[in-house]
Specification:
The structure holds two protein chains of two kinds.
Chain A (H helix, E strand, L loop, with lengths): L1 H10 L18 H11 L3 E7 L5 H8 L12 E3 L8 E5 L2 E2 L3 H10 L5 E5 H6 L9 E3 L9 E3 L6 H11 L14
Parallel strand pairs in A: 1-2, 1-3, 3-5, 5-7
Antiparallel strand pairs in A: 4-6
Chain B lengths: L15 H10 L4 E2 L12 E6 L4 H10 L3 E10 L2 E10 L2 E10 L4 E3 L9 H11 L2 E3 L50 E6 L11 E7 L2 E8 L7 H5 L4 H8 L7 H16 L5 H28 L4 H22 L8 E2 L2 E2 L5 H27 L1 H7 L7 H7 L3 H5 L7 H4 L20 H25 L16 E8 L4 E8 L5 E7 L2 H11 L8 H8 L3 H5 L1
Parallel strand pairs in B: 2-5, 6-7
Antiparallel strand pairs in B: 1-2, 3-4, 4-5, 8-9, 9-10, 11-12, 13-14, 14-15
Classes of the chains: A alpha/beta, B alpha+beta.
The complex binds iron/sulfur cluster.
């Protein structure tokens, strides 16, 4: 017990400022951005759906929760059910075996059902393309609001994109007052 | 009780030559000595046997405690070749048989090797080979995206297939049922609760206790083997690096090793060393992440936070030195894409020193922390006997006394010049698997130190021949999950005719079903994480 506390103390707070997003990280209509800010206020629940990924994208999604990125400080958190979600974060080319599950997950998500397609596969099928087994891009199955390219996109890029989508990309230095 | 006879059994298994001799004594006609197109390059001993002897060969091998590793097929019109890989004391024996493309059947090896169950059903799904005497006639990888009479890996089957616009869900898969008073069923998936890949788990439970678990996988089948056809070796390497993103170095190395063996290309020494550096870094990153995640599954957030921190720092160094946080596309045919300069080597050494100090502090704490170990010990026990019967691999096997590691038992460059310690234990529970993985981090740190100290000078990539004849090769790499296999067949134009990757998860997914009896439902996530099979690497 004592050793755990001591280690925690020595480790300290390592959460880092998020660099401002570049132009390319999100292409979004102004109306959509306004709507999100209006609807969600300060928090948003994310449900991830792996629709056929190689699991590389998932590893970087996990990294959003580590102490450096700490996604929860932006009011963003991963939830266990699409019924609790505001946003679906979808990875992978959509395998035909997951096509219906993805559609059903989307149907189970309450409005406004935001969808981010994460990674090159989700964007256009990536290395796997369209085939007897793959439907390719996520947008071939459900409407997509934002595409984040990369194989896989880095956690910082992912955070930048999500916060941009929320119209709340932080100014550098403003998020870590507690530090 | 665990008896001495249950342990160290690989040292009791025969070597490949003896096994071939035993086949002969059992009346199996064996053909050896192959040249040209029919030869397969790589660290395997190839033999051809008759269709009718396929099951008998497995029976002879199983009786001698030879480990079963893989089965796959290849359509070479007008025939289908079927391969089975067996691991002997001194290396691998590759069995091959030739079948007619229509109406061909083989005696199943599953009665002698339970681990062959799903792999054989997959060969049936993908190529239409019938395995007679197989105890389970159900399909495996096929859901509803193609029909019973279509076989995606046949040459006449087009890559695009003949799909309907909306593929129906696979709701009618006939799961085994358990009946009785108070028994109820819990269906889970394919979309799970956490950040995890999709698959379906069907539990039969009574109160809190799980009576049985049946897995239904194949949800992320995206046609990797078919997509590989027609690519050149560079495109193949990129694809192999995405068979399972967490094992990108491993699969890419195995595929390149197979291609290089086929083409007769020697990899420069320096490149082999850098590949091993990448592979050990991949091992450490995954072990760190998963140890944290196992602890998190029983609510010990401290370990999760600490391990995730160390993993992130490790990945940042990957990006800095190799250009990619997960090390994708750094291994290329003939060698590696990135060299290490003095500064890079120093940086990696410092990272080693830092991580050694950190894990030296954290691991002993985890191994002894009472409230954590109270949950991990005796949870999800896999006996040595079960591990052996199922052909378990990697840390799952090693935590149950089955101490295989290719880096030591069938070493390839650069491990052939190194001493690799293989941590193992007998408990076979979640605690044992966490401990073995923790200890493997320490071994990998030592190996990294040695690799960095002895990094030879020279080229980092060999030139590949521009023209060559049709050729085939096998790659065998010990990834962080365990023994990883790749089979590559290149045509005379340098295009892939067949690529088969065998992720260790194929052998480890069934161990989860075996260890779950009597475990309480809330401990399932822990058991699952402690095995951590790849869905993508399995579903292909
Ligand atoms: S984008 Fe890259 S990392 Fe993500 S699922 Fe596709 S291949 Fe894997």
């Amino acid at each position: 017990m004592f050793s755990v506390l001591e280690k925690l103390f020595r480790t300290g707070c390592l959460t880092e400022d998020l660099p401002p997003a570049g132009e390319e990280s999100a292409e979004l209509t102004a109306a959509c951005r306004q709507e999100i800010t209006r609807v969600f206020g300060r928090s948003m629940a994310i449900r991830m759906v792996d629709a056929g990924s190689c699991n590389g994208c998932e590893l970087e999604m996990h990294a959003l929760n580590n102490c450096f990125n700490d996604i929860e400080r932006f009011g963003l958190h991963f939830v266990a059910s699409p019924r609790h979600a505001d946003l679906l974060l979808v990875t992978g080319p959509v395998s035909r075996h997951m096509q219906d599950a993805l559609k059903r997950t989307y149907d189970a998500t309450p409005d406004p059902k935001l969808v981010i397609a994460m990674g090159d596969c989700a964007a256009d099928g990536g290395e796997f393309g369209v085939s007897y087994a793959s439907v390719g891009a996520v947008s071939n199955v459900i409407p997509v609001d934002l595409v984040i390219p990369g194989c896989p996109p880095t956690p910082v890029r992912l955070l930048q994109a999500i916060t941009t989508l929320l119209g709340r990309c932080p100014q550098a230095g403003k998020t870590n007052e507690a530090r | 009780m665990i008896s001495q006879a249950d342990l160290g059994w690989q040292s009791l298994s025969p070597d490949t030559a003896t096994l071939v001799q035993l086949f002969g004594e059992a009346g199996i006609v064996v053909r050896e000595e192959f040249t040209g197109e029919s030869a397969i390059a790589g660290a395997v001993h190839l033999i051809d046997i008759e269709n009718g002897d396929w099951g008998r060969a497995a029976e002879v091998a199983a009786a001698k405690r030879v480990r079963w590793s893989a089965v796959w097929g290849e359509h070479v019109p007008p025939r289908i070749d079927v391969f089975a890989l067996l691991a002997c004391r001194n290396g691998h024996l590759l069995l091959r048989t030739h079948l007619r493309e229509t109406g061909g059947s083989l005696p199943s090896q599953t009665p002698f090797y339970p681990g062959a169950d799903r792999p054989e059903r997959t060969v049936a799904d993908m190529l239409g080979v019938v395995f007679t005497g197989h105890p389970d006639g159900r399909r495996w990888l096929r859901h509803q995206a193609w029909t019973e009479n279509q076989f995606p890996l046949r040459k006449e089957f087009p890559l695009a297939g003949t799909p309907t616009p909306a593929t129906p869900p696979d709701c009618l898969y006939p799961f085994r049922e358990v009946s009785g008073d108070g028994v109820y069923e819990i269906p889970v998936g394919p979309v799970h609760a956490g950040i995890i890949e999709p698959g379906h788990f069907r539990f039969q439970a009574m109160g809190e206790d799980i009576l049985s678990l049946e897995e239904h996988l194949g949800y992320v089948h995206k046609g990797i083997e078919k997509v590989a056809e027609g690519r050149d070796v560079w495109g193949l390497a990129r694809l192999a690096g995405r068979v399972s993103g967490d094992s990108t170095v491993t699969h890419c190395w195995a595929a390149c090793q197979a291609s290089e063996a086929a083409l007769g290309v020697g990899v420069p020494k320096r490149a082999a060393f850098i590949r091993a550096i990448l592979a050990e870094r991949e091992r450490i990153a995954n072990h760190l992440g998963d140890i944290g995640a196992c602890c998190n599954d029983v609510g010990f957030a401290f370990a999760h936070a600490q391990c995730a921190r160390l993993r992130e720092l490790w990945q940042r160094d990957n990006r800095l030195l190799f250009g990619h946080r997960l090390l994708m596309d750094v291994v290329i045919p003939g060698g590696v894409r990135r060299d290490l300069d003095r500064a890079g080597i120093d940086l990696l050494r410092e990272a080693n020193t830092r991580l050694s100090a950190e894990v030296g502090e954290i691991l002993p704490l985890l191994y002894e922390y009472p409230s954590l170990q109270d949950r991990l010990r005796t949870t999800g026990e896999l006996t040595p006997k079960q591990a052996r019967a199922l052909g378990a691999l990697g840390y799952v096997a090693r935590a149950s006394g089955e101490c295989w590691d290719l880096r030591r038992d069938a070493p390839y460059a650069p491990y052939d010049g190194m001493v690799v310690t293989v941590p193992h234990c007998l408990e076979g529970d979640a605690s044992g698997r966490v401990r073995v993985r923790g200890d493997e981090i320490l071994v990998s740190l030592d190996l990294l130190e040695e690799l960095l100290n002895k990094l030879p000078p020279g080229e980092i990539a060999a030139t590949l021949p521009t023209t060559h004849a049709e050729c085939r090769g096998i790659g065998l790499v010990e990834g962080w999950r365990g023994e990883t296999v790749a089979y590559v067949h290149l045509d005379g134009a340098g295009r892939v005719a067949r690529y088969f990757p065998r992720d260790p998860s194929w052998l480890n997914w069934p161990t989860l079903e075996a260890m779950i009896h009597g475990v309480i439902v809330p401990d399932f996530p822990l058991c699952n994480k402690s095995v951590n099979g790849s869905y993508s690497g399995h579903d292909l």
